[in-house]
């Protein structure tokens, strides 16, 4: 949970306190402040948050879109963002009538504001009506008044549909689906809704063409909806719905595992049976998956028989965290005996020891410590296991805290969600993305915890992650011209170049390098390769393609790079990546060194595909002159370069390439 936006605003007079209480839905706090505060505390924003109809008395069309109050919001946002008495029918009706009066005065239904509770950091009035005011009627009115269903920046979390799904608000969801939302919103909503094990909700999204092969779930290791459904132990009917709508049984998660492999690990026998009926085969299940299954079943003999520590992948260690989350204490010693890392980290940044401490599982904490788990490690919130154990004060947690206390740091933890520290971090993040070296250096000197600290926002990015310009709040997705210098400053101060975060559902690939190499902002600035090279020099794990590109960006001819082979898969991948990054000098250096112009990357795309989707007609002509093949199709969309040009919105180039392709087929 991120720090509420109100805590990022310095508190002022009683009117601010009253406003915060009303927006938070704190009826007792609101009543207490109103008893002691003077009438001047009931400012316009306060009356809007309270759904007090007297707020309309001083409003006119010239004012309804003007910024007002401590947050600088227009009136409609104070109204829709309020949680005050959301379950009270009279208050909900009053809120709706005020909204109708505001839109009748031409209030903009598409207003929105920055916030800190969601990954994208932006909430519209429509999203607030659903997620905070919890009013389908209010949302319906805003849609009727012209609210855009494609609300806000292009991140799903924080959108109106995200709010409807996370609150299991079927009525609002139906309104949004009827309004013609972006298809990718529907696709994101599908794995998200699986958490509720609600067949009707799944059916509704599938009927609106939600993609059962979408891979943006929370718990399914970045697999498809099938993986998510199995992990969440959904009823079999949901798996059958997904399969009937085209879910692929051969799809893999980030660990290379199919849904059947996951079902085997978790002993979901009913799920496994359905998957086999739809074509899944036992050849997909590794010995390690069967070992996990034995551990989860508490089967000592088979867990020992199948243990193979050398075969464990990074993702396999996460099962230790999942066993602790599930309260399966019998599985923990078996997993550890078979080689599971006692410091395993789940995709949300929680370590095994933190999870055990949070649950007050004394025996599990003892075993993890005996196996070498780090009692001083911190989670994404800056908490040690001791801090986590102190969230509760029952006997089990007290015993856990007593175990951890002698092993924990003597100094109090710096908690990243603490409002004062969160404000410092926000200033530092602004300095990072603006390239303000002096400001950043001063903050790093004054606050030594900053280099390894994380945002209080749900993405939990470090300062270094912000240079990835990807998956964070929209206004901070920018690349400063001196980005390499900023990287060096942060690395010198102690930032971890391999730290993961929780953008795009977390996991080890959500590192600064991972974010950076999939973002258009550093690419457009022409800085991707130099930024990756700077991170690599600071110890970041970097794919060999980027190591090669870094060498070439330094001006080295390809044939002087150690072990360079123009006919290798690596050289071909580097060629296509250079086109993706618009590094044309490197691209032509590779071609001149003998790399095949029709080499493909993993998805089957060539340099010509990439130039076409970018609409770079000049580069397309140069590539065609060198023998680029117009007929080659990628493996994902089965598209030719002409099709990619159309997909990129470059109609004229697409038509030109399509005609040349047809001419090539017909011959001279």
What does this structure look like?
The protein is an all-alpha fold and about 675 residues long. The chain folds into 4 domains: about 1-180, Serine Threonine Protein Phosphatase 5, Tetratricopeptide repeat; about 305-405, Ankyrin repeat-containing domain (Serine Threonine Protein Phosphatase 5, Tetratricopeptide repeat, Alpha Horseshoe); about 420-540, Serine Threonine Protein Phosphatase 5, Tetratricopeptide repeat; about 595-668, Ankyrin repeat-containing domain (Serine Threonine Protein Phosphatase 5, Tetratricopeptide repeat, Alpha Horseshoe). About 50% of the residues lie in helices and about 0% in strands. The protein has 36 helices and 2 strands. It has a two-stranded antiparallel ribbon with strand order 1-2. Helix 5 runs parallel beside helix 7 and helix 26 (about 485-495) packs parallel to helix 29 (about 530-535). The chain is globular, with a radius of gyration of 27 Å. It starts with 13 loop residues before the first helix and ends with a helix. Mean pLDDT is about 95; it is low at about 1-10.
CATH level 4 superfamily of the largest domain? Ankyrin repeat-containing domain
What is the CATH class of the largest domain? Mainly Alpha
Quick one: overall form? globular
Question: What can be said about the biggest beta sheet?
Answer: 2 strands, antiparallel
Radius of gyration: 27 Å
As a percent range, the share of helical residues equals 40-55%
Q: Quote the beta fraction.
A: under 5%
Are there runs of 5+ residues with pLDDT below 50, and where?
A: 1-11
> What class do helices, strands and sheet pairing give?
mainly alpha
Overall tally of domains = 4
The separation of the N and C termini measures: 65 Å
By DSSP, the count of extended strands is: 2
| Average pLDDT, all residues | 94
């Amino acid at each position: 949970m991120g720090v509420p936006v109100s805590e990022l605003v310095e508190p002022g007079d009683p009117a601010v306190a009253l406003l915060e209480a009303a927006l938070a839905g704190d009826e007792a706090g609101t009543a207490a402040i109103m008893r002691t505060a003077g009438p001047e505390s009931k400012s316009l924003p306060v009356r809007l948050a309270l759904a007090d109809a007297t707020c309309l008395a001083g409003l006119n069309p010239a004012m309804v879109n003007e910024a007002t109050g401590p947050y600088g919001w227009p009136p409609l946002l104070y109204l829709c963002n309020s949680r005050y008495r959301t379950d009270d029918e009279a208050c909900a009706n009053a809120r709706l009538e005020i909204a109708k009066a505001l839109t009748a005065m031409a209030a903009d239904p598409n207003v929105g504001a920055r916030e800190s509770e969601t990954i994208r950091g932006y909430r519209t009035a429509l999203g607030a009506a659903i997620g905070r005011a919890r009013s389908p009627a209010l949302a319906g009115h805003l849609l009727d008044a012209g609210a855009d269903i494609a609300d806000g920046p292009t991140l799903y979390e924080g959108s109106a549909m995200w709010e409807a799904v996370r609150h299991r608000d079927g009525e609002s969801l139906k309104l949004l689906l009827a309004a013609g939302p972006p298809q990718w919103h529907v696709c994101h909503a599908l794995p998200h809704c699986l958490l509720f094990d609600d067949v009707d909700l799944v059916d509704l999204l599938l009927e609106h063409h939600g993609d059962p092969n979408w891979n943006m779930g929370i718990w399914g290791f970045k697999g498809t909806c099938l993986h998510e459904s199995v992990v969440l132990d959904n009823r079999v009917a949901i798996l059958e719905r997904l399969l009937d709508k085209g879910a692929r049984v051969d799809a893999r998660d980030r660990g290379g595992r199919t849904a059947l492999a996951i079902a085997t690990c978790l002993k979901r026998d009913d799920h496994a049976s359905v998957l086999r009926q739809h074509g899944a085969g036992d050849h997909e299940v590794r010995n390690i998956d069967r070992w996990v299954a034995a551990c989860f079943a508490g089967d000592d003999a088979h867990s020992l028989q199948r243990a193979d520590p050398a075969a464990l992948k990074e993702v396999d260690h996460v099962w230790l965290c999942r066993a602790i989350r599930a309260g399966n204490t019998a599985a923990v010693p078996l997993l550890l005996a078979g080689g599971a890392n006692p410091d395993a980290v789940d995709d949300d940044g929680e370590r095994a020891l933190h999870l055990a401490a949070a649950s007050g599982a004394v025996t599990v904490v003892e075993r993890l410590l005996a196996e070498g788990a780090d009692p001083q490690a911190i989670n994404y919130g800056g908490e040690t296991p001791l801090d986590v154990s102190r969230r509760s004060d029952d006997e089990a947690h007290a015993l856990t805290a007593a175990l951890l206390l002698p092993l924990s740091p003597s100094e109090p933890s710096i908690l990243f969600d603490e409002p004062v520290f969160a404000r410092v971090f926000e200033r530092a993040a602004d300095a990072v993305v603006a390239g303000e070296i002096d400001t950043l250096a001063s903050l790093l000197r004054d606050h030594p915890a900053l280099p390894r600290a994380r945002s209080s926002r749900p993405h939990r990015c470090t300062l270094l992650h912000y240079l990835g310009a990807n998956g964070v709040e929209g206004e901070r997705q920018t690349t400063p011209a001196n980005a390499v210098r900023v990287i060096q400053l942060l690395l010198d101060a102690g930032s971890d170049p391999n730290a993961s975060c929780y953008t795009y559902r977390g996991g080890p690939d959500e590192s600064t390098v991972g974010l950076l190499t999939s973002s258009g902002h550093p690419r457009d600035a022409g800085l991707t390769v130099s930024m990756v090279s700077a991170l690599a020099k600071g110890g970041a794990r970097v794919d060999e393609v980027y190591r090669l590109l870094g060498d070439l960006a330094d001006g080295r001819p390809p044939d002087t790079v150690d072990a360079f082979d123009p006919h290798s898969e690596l050289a071909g991948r580097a060629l296509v990546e250079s086109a993706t990054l618009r590094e044309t000098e490197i691209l032509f250096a590779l071609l001149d060194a003998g790399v095949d112009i029709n080499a493909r990357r993993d998805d089957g795309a060539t340099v010509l595909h990439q130039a076409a989707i970018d609409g770079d007609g000049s580069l397309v002509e140069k590539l065609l002159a060198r023998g680029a093949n117009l007929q080659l199709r990628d493996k994902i969309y089965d598209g030719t370069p002409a099709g990619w040009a159309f997909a990129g919105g470059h109609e004229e180039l697409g038509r030109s390439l399509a005609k040349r392709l047809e001419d090539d087929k017909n011959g001279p």
